[in-house]
Specification:
Elements: H1 5-25, H2 31-51, H3 61-83, H4 89-110, H5 134-154, H6 185-204
Helix pairs in contact: 1-2, 1-6, 2-3, 2-4, 2-6, 3-4, 5-6
Length: 206
């Protein structure tokens, strides 16, 4: 992936912060929310690790293969939860697609020439560039662009209704009294919006 150094570090910070909040959400009293938060924390920290500029750390090819295996396991878990109808099927589908997108990006990085595997390491690779499938990249870009727009619209005042994000609210995405920070639906949605935006930015660099 190719991105300016500053953009890469901003992605690292955004994804790490999202992953940290997901760790906080994993303390929820609801088992389904805890499982979802753990999966999203894995995605957030994984995206942060993948976004580290190659000029700082240039991991060997086997690291990207290991990333692909970890995220494939996460995709299986999301698919299993969706099949067992645990929680909202729409969110599990989004989580599944996110994990599969991570597998895809890790696969592209694993196939990159030595020394180029990183957010800033694919600049000027020309014919040597490890190219992913344009069709797959395009479909993922369309999906995450749509998700970012949808999630952003949902965070508009008065649009986040009771039960959204699996935690009760009453009227909007503002603070909710008596609801723990890890169970706040508007914060969970904002976290997913952040990771969706980061995913979109990372896909654009392929």
């Amino acid at each position: 992936m190719h991105a300016p150094l500053l953009v890469s570090w901003l992605l690292v910070a955004l994804c790490a912060a999202s992953g940290a909040y997901c760790v906080l959400r994993a303390r929820s009293r609801t088992p389904e929310r805890r499982a979802t938060a753990r999966g999203e924390a894995l995605m957030g920290f994984g995206m942060a690790a993948m976004a580290v500029p190659a000029a700082v750390i240039a991991p060997p090819g086997w690291v990207w293969t290991a990333y692909a295996a970890v995220f494939a396991t996460g995709a299986l878990a999301a698919g299993g939860a969706m099949a067992l109808r645990r929680g909202g099927p729409g969110h599990h589908l989004h989580h599944l697609l996110g994990m599969l997108a991570m597998v895809y990006m890790a696969w592209v990085m694993a196939a990159a020439p030595a020394g180029h595997a990183g957010m800033s390491g694919m600049a000027g690779m020309g014919a040597e560039r490890a190219a992913g499938s344009p069709a797959v990249t395009g479909l993922l870009l369309l999906y995450f662009a749509g998700y970012v727009l949808w999630a952003g619209a949902r965070l508009m005042p008065g649009t986040l209704t009771a039960g959204a994000g699996s935690a009760g609210t009453s009227g909007g995405p503002g603070p909710v009294r008596g609801v723990r920070w890890g169970d706040r639906p508007e914060l969970a949605l904002a976290c997913r919006l952040s990771m969706g935006t980061a995913m979109l930015a990372m896909l654009l660099t392929l």
